[in-house]
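Deliverable D4.2, example record:
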Amino acid sequence: MAKPEKHVFICTQNRPLGHPRPSCGQKNCAEVADEFYWHLQDRQLFDKVRVTTAGCLGPCSEGPSVLVYPEGVMYGGVSKEDVAVIFDEHLENDRPVERLVMSGEFWG
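Output generated by the structure prediction step:
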């Protein structure tokens, strides 16, 4: 297996209803993860990009959260519709999607 150029982590943390903290699971993170896997397959970027679901990445109130390494870029409030843009701009052309980048108060 080739070492990927980028590694994407998608928070899929799901807390029980009534929990005092929000979670990405309450904000359609599964749909976002499915879209990342679909684009990975459709674009055949297996040698360049690795996609992994993860537990809590930290900023629960800002989810769904997506973290891209090696840059350490954290995206917040990612929707299914944002995934194609992240692939087009960041994963394939090394330009983070500024409108989705998490503010320094959460990550930085």
